[in-house]
Structures are given as C-alpha cells and as structure tokens.
Amino acid sequence: MHQAADYLVYSGADDQDSWLSNCQKIVEVFCKIASLESAKIYSRKKKFFELQSNDQEHEVKVYARDILKHQFKNDEFIKLSDYNDLIKKLKATEEDFLYNCQSSSIQNYILTTLVVIKGEINKKNENFTKDFFRIIARVTTISSLYFSLEDTQSKFRKEVGNVAHDNFNTLQRVFLDLDFISSSLKTKEIEAIKKPIQFFEFFS
Questions:
Q1: How far, in Å, CA of 174 to CA of 129, rounded?
Q2: Distances (CA, A) of 204 to 27, 75, 83, 168, 193
Q3: Phi then psi for 199, rounded to 5 degrees?
Q4: Inter-axis angle of helices 16-33 and 126-185, to 10 degrees?
C-alpha cells in the first residue's frame, strides 16, 4: 500500500495528466486483485467534486452540495441504489458503491474524496479495499492541492511579467522623452527628475 502511495507521490509530479494516468493504472491493477470491475476517484475542487481523469472529453463534475447534503458516514461503503439522485450525476448504476473518505483537514477544513466502485465487494477484502482507497484518497487530495498551487503560481508569474513589461515600456518612453528634453535644455532640474526614475527602473 505504502509503495503504491510513494509511487504516486514521486511519479509524474510535474505533469498532472501523467500523474492521473499513473493513478488510474494503479487503481486498475488493484481492482483486478480485489475482483472489482472498476473504480472512479472524485476530488473536491471548490464547489464541485470532479472526476480525476485525463480524458477531457468525459469530464464529470458534481455539485458538492448534492453530495454533502446526504451526510455520508466517513470510511464506509454506501450502496448507491439508496440514492437515485446521485446515480446519473456520478455516471454510476444502482449496483455501484460509494466510498466516502475524509482524508485530512487544513485549518479545520475537511478534504473529502469520493470513490465510485463498480463490482461486488468481498467481505474478506473489505478492510484491504478500504485501506487502499484511503491511501489513494489522501495522495489524490495532496496532488490536487499541489497542481492547483502550481496553476495559481503560474498565473501569478504571468501576470507579474505582463505588469513588469508594461511598466518597463512606459518608463522607457518617459526616459527617452527626458533624454530628448535634457539634450535640448541641459538643466540640473531635468537630471534631478531622471534620478528617481532610474532608481525605480533599477528595481522593476
């Protein structure tokens, strides 16, 4: 279990699609071992639970309020046949199970991961299956936070770069205009104006 978690933590960490592909492979292998047909991971992202998949054509989002209103017990397998309103939204069937894992908390904020499991869960494998999906849920939560942070930082760097570029162009124009005036007038007053602009340009 921990080897699988370590593999996901260190495999493809710089690329979300690659990471999701590796995660799907591990889940598929486990499903074969546990005699399950399939399992889909849904992570909380703002007001949605989103299917963790690198297949953009089959993107699935479910409003978090539609899940949270049922107040599912943590670390339990829930038969979806009792929740008809969720079957279509989660692209599931009445025979499928829902596993709810509240994997961690940050500043008292509960991070919830859902797993939709297709296939009969063998009683002998129940604890083993819970252990596996508990680890997958934790690693998925961490990866979602990591890639969200990376995306935010990337957007921030781009915005800062654009602002710096715009300010630099403006300062260049001002500086060239002052150079032209200075060459004409050659006054101490103009040189005094240029000094603080040079100082600002140095730090921009």
A1: 67
A2: 49, 52, 57, 7, 17
A3: -60, -45
A4: 180
Could you tell me which of 63, 57, 21 has the C-alpha nearest to residue 42? 63
Kindly state whether residues 107 and 39 are assigned to the same domain.
yes
Same domain for 174 and 73, yes or no, is: no
Whole-angstrom distance, CA of residue 95 vs CA of residue 33: 20
Residue 196 has pLDDT above 60, yes or no: no
Share of the chain above pLDDT 70, in %: 60
Please give the tally of structural domains in the chain.
Answer: 2
| Phi-psi region at 78: left, alpha or beta (left = phi > 0; alpha = psi -120 to 50) | beta
Predicted confidence at residue 83, as pLDDT, reads 93
Q: Is the pLDDT of residue 120 over 50?
A: yes
Residue 75: which domain range?
2-154
